[in-house]
Amino acid sequence: MEVKAINSAGASVGDRIVLSFETASLLKATFLIYVFPIIFLIAGAALGQVLSAFIAFSPSALSVLFGFAFFFSSLFIIKARANKMAKKNTYQPKIIKIIT
Is residue 82 assigned to a domain? Predict the structure, then answer.
């Protein structure tokens, strides 16, 4: 398996290594990928339901439209945020030990 990692242990190609990944960084990335889109989907659906009372449109249809619009907009936000996170050392695994 190939993984881009910070080589703080001085490993070379072919070495067996131990990787470390900060838990806080992993949780932030996991939240961004899995929970953030669901929150946006629910918020969009709720907003569509509320706005349907003010315009002459089906509440269910407007909820679906807004839900999917918010969901897909969250994917663009995630992509932009992920590109910034990938450049930071905190979100990259580190080689902490060489086994062989």
Answer: yes
CA atoms lying within 13 Å on the CB side of residue 47: 13
Residue 77 resides in a domain: yes
Helix (H) or strand (E) holding 19: strand 17-20
Q: pLDDT band at residue 50, thresholds of 50, 70 and 90? A: very high
Q: Which spans in the chain are helix H?
A: 23-30, 36-51, 59-86
Q: Model's pTM, two decimal places? A: 0.76
Percent of the chain with pLDDT over 90: 59
46 within some domain:
yes
Residue 66 inside a domain? The answer is yes
